Amino acid sequence: MVKAIVGANWGDEGKGKITDMMAQEADIVVRFQGGANAGHTIVNDYGKFALHTLPSGVFYSHVTNIIGNGVALNIPLLFKEIRSLVERSVPSPKLLVSDRAQIVMPYHILLDQYEEERLGGKSFGSTKSGIAPFYSDKYAKIGFQVSELFDEEILREKTQRVCELKNVLFEHLYHKPVIKPEELLETLHGYRDMVAPFVCDVSVFLDKALKEGKTVLLEGQLGTLKDPDHGIYPMVTSSSTLAAFGAIGAGLPPYEIGQIVTVCKAYSSAVGAGAFVSELFGDEAEELRRRGGDGGEYGATTGRPRRVGWFDCVASRYGCRMQGTTDVAFTVLDVLGYLDEIPVCVGYEIDGEVTTDFPVTSRLSKAKPVFEKLPGWKCEIRGIRKYEELPENCRKYIEFIEERIGYPITMVSNGPGREDIIYRESPLAR
Ligand code: GDP
């Protein structure tokens, strides 16, 4: 059985926590896209961790963690992350790296930084971790696969060829020092030695595991609205954030994905630029940001303050639909306990008309939120484990949103820890 855990919105919905929780009963956790440009925050018995590349199953000794072929693999960062876990008494995780995963090269990171510098105020708000240049090269067919690290001839020839090409940009567009093929080759030899013990033909491994009845989790990064095709292009990431891509980015048949858990936060938050219709500003925003997440809404990788807003039914309904949601995990609900009433965005007004369908980017910029206000519950809900024990207004909030998004909320998360979860029978469950 394969289960995907993905985000409905802009990311930071709490996928890491849900994956860590679901990994208790899984055998394998696979990262299938993205790179070290975003992070998952996980709070468990070992403490609080921000993971960037490692799958969220690394805290269990029974879980095999896999870096799938769809990931942008930054090898030195991966090993730095493993060391940071081991230093904090987490047992060294079981890890496999796909021989088809491609490598984030030092020049990808430089290109990302230089390009943001060049664009100045018109930049995309990149995290400068080389992700866009990496995926551009992958699809331009000049990327380096992990398997190629083990073929000296290919490596030599390619480093030479790639340096010629990149140096044109470094020299003439960015006016920066050029890269030397010999140095790059040496760096790649270092990468080869680090990654060698973990390299695996992942699709064969997964095929066998599925035949043996193992449970596989596919862990997404970011959310629907950051998908390059279905998100708020161009303010998106460079790899697909959709569960459907999980099959490609892990290397398994799409029909094996039997459950798609779409994580949806009880209010909205976003890092980086781009349309955000239900966004809040001023004191109201500051208060939600301060109280939000676990210790405030600040990016797990970048530390950047997140933009925050009220729950957006239009974006979330779309976000869930594009994921192919079977279950919604509704997270960070405990944070809203301070509010007398809670506005929820139920529609977008565009050119005088109200719609509940999420529009393309050019129309999205004209959208104004239509809010409905729901009464708050004004109390702490952390520690509650049964749905019926939640305050009535809290249940009404969940049920209102479930009805508006049209997908079953079967899990409610009321705290950052593994045990902070309420399972719920939904009238919409299939
Ligand atoms: P991800 O990228 O989707 O995994 O999300 P992040 O980890 O970047 O952000 C989610 C934040 O919310 C983290 O700080 C989590 O520890 C925290 N979190 C997750 N679920 C809950 C919850 O139910 N309540 C609270 N208060 N915090 C939560």
Quick overview of this protein structure:
The chain is α/β, with parallel strands linked by helices.
Structural class assignment:
alpha/beta
List low-confidence stretches.
Answer: none
Terminal CA distance reads 17 Å
Question: Which band does the percent of strand residues land in?
Answer: 15-25%
What can you tell me about this protein's structure?
The protein folds into three domains: about 1-100 and about 200-260, Adenylosuccinate Synthetase, Chain A, domain 1; about 100-195, Adenylosuccinate Synthetase, subunit A, domain 2; about 265-425, Adenylosuccinate Synthetase, subunit A, domain 3 (Adenylosuccinate Synthetase, Chain A, domain 3), CATH 3.90.170.10. The chain is about 30% helix and about 20% strand. The chain is built from twelve helices and 20 strands. The protein has helices spanning about 15-20, 75-85, 105-120, 130-140, 150-175, 180-195, 200-210, 245-250, 280-290, 315-325, 360-365, 390-405; strands spanning about 1-5, 30, 40-45, 45-50, 65, 70-75, 95-100, 100-105, 200, 215-225, 255-265, 270, 305-310, 310, 325-330, 340-350, 355, 370-375, 410-415, 420-425. The longest helix has 22 residues, at about 150-175. The model has no long low-confidence stretch (mean pLDDT about 95). It binds guanosine-5'-diphosphate. Guanosine-5'-diphosphate binds near residues 39, 43, 335 and 414.
SSE topology sketch:
Layout: E1 2-7, H1 15-22, E2 28-31, E3 40-44, E4 47-51, E5 64-67, E6 72-73, H2 75-86, E7 94-98, E8 102-103, H3 106-119, H4 131-139, H5 152-173, H6 181-195, E9 199-200, H7 202-211, E10 216-223, H8 243-250, E11 257-265, E12 268-270, H9 282-291, E13 307-309, E14 311-312, H10 313-323, E15 327-331, E16 341-350, E17 353-355, H11 361-364, E18 368-375, H12 392-405, E19 409-413, E20 421-423
Helix pairs in contact: 3-4, 5-6
The structure holds guanosine-5'-diphosphate.
Residues 7, 11-17, 38-41, 43, 293-294, 300, 331-332, 334-335, 413-416, 420 line the site of guanosine-5'-diphosphate.
